[in-house]
């Protein structure tokens, strides 16, 4: 099996890399941090390719995809996992660059990851594209306007792509993690219900990908929480979440 994975150097990405490498997959691992990528590959069984890049850089991803296909062939699975989270407030002018950066990474990064592989997958008539969204995209969370909006956009984009590719042989999967124990969530100064260790989450993600599930929330309990929140009338939702904990602004993303 051949897998191309972004955001591979830590958190969910690193856990997925370990999971798939243990199963004998050949991996193309992309992330912004060269040293972390090198350290990760040193821990993995098998031979893998690394691509130090920023998913906001479309030409860099195109070059990585071209190299991976030339060396190993068209991937069976492409996982757009790279993402950043930072506390934001719209009324703070200093936060506007953070809004832009979050959207470039979390939304356009998914597009940049998928685009170079689609033609090859269509020609072969098979493949799976996996977009990592978030339950934070189901309702807007205070202090996380950029992150929530970016993940809502990812959910809608992947749904549109799934319909576009219907009948092509390419499966499109939307994964919505709840709280997963990663360096990103470690900075959250509030309770995180149903928190999952990253390795357990990776196993469940891989199982959903193998099944070709079009839309899945992991852990499943957060799916029910998200559905409940979606049904809350706006006045009640506003009253409850106006007092909710918020991610601090200005984190290093």
Walk me through what this model shows.
With 253 residues, the chain is an alpha/beta fold. It has a single domain, classed as 3-Layer(aba) Sandwich (Rossmann fold), CATH 3.40.50.720. 47% of the residues lie in helices and 16% in strands. The protein contains 8 helices and 9 strands. It has helices spanning 11-22, 34-43, 58-72, 96-124, 145-164, 198-211, 220-231, 234-241, and strands at residues 2-6, 26-31, 49-52, 77-80, 127-132, 170-177, 180-181, 196-197, 215-218. Helix 1 packs across helix 6 (198-211), helix 3 runs parallel beside helix 4 (96-124) and helix 4 (96-124) runs parallel beside helix 5. The protein is globular and about 55 Å long. The mean pLDDT is 89.
Could you give a quick summary of the protein structure above?
The chain has helices at residues 11-22, 34-43, 58-72, 96-124, 145-164, 198-211, 220-231, 234-241; strands at residues 2-6, 26-31, 49-52, 77-80, 127-132, 170-177, 180-181, 196-197, 215-218. It has 253 residues and is α/β, with parallel strands linked by helices. The chain is globular.
- Reported CATH architecture: 3-Layer(aba) Sandwich
Give unreliable regions as ranges: none
The dominant shape is: globular
Radius of gyration, taken over Cα atoms and rounded to an integer in Å: 18 Å
Strand order in the largest sheet = 3-2-1-4-5-6-9
Number of helices: 8
The fourth-level CATH homologous superfamily is NAD(P)-binding Rossmann-like Domain
Largest sheet: 7 strands, parallel
For the record, the count of structural domains works out to 1
Mean pLDDT: 89
Order of helices and strands: EHEHEHEHEHEEEHEHH
Q: Determine the N-to-C terminus distance.
A: 32 Å
CATH class, please? Alpha Beta
Strand content: 15-25%
What is the helix content? 40-55%
Number of strands: 9
CATH topology: the name is Rossmann fold
Structural class: alpha/beta
């Amino acid at each position: 099996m051949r897998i191309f994975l972004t955001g591979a150097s830590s958190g969910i990405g690193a856990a997925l890399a370990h999971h798939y490498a243990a199963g004998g997959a050949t991996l193309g691992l992309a992330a912004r941090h060269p040293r972390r990528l090198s350290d990760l590959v040193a821990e993995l069984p098998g031979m893998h390719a690394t691509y130090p890049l920023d998913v906001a850089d479309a030409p860099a991803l195109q070059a990585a995809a071209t190299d991976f296909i030339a060396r190993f062939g068209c991937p069976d699975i492409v996982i757009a996992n790279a993402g950043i989270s930072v506390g934001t407030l719209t009324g703070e002018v200093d936060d506007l660059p953070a809004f832009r950066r979050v959207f470039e990474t979390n939304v356009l990064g998914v597009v940049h990851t998928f685009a170079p592989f689609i033609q090859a997958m269509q020609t072969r008539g098979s493949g799976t594209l996996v977009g990592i969204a978030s339950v934070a995209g189901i309702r807007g969370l205070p202090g996380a306007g950029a992150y929530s909006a970016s993940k809502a956009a990812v959910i809608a984009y992947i749904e549109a792509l799934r319909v576009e590719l219907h009948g092509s042989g390419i499966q499109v999967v939307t994964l919505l993690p709840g709280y997963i124990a990663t360096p990103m969530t470690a900075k959250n100064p509030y309770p995180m219900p149903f928190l999952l260790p990253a390795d357990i989450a990776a196993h469940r993600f891989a199982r959903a990908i193998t099944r070709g599930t079009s839309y899945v929330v992991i852990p499943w309990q957060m799916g029910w929480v998200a559905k409940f929140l979606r049904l809350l009338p706006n006045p009640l939702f506003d009253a409850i979440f106006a007092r909710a904990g918020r991610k601090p602004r200005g984190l290093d993303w």
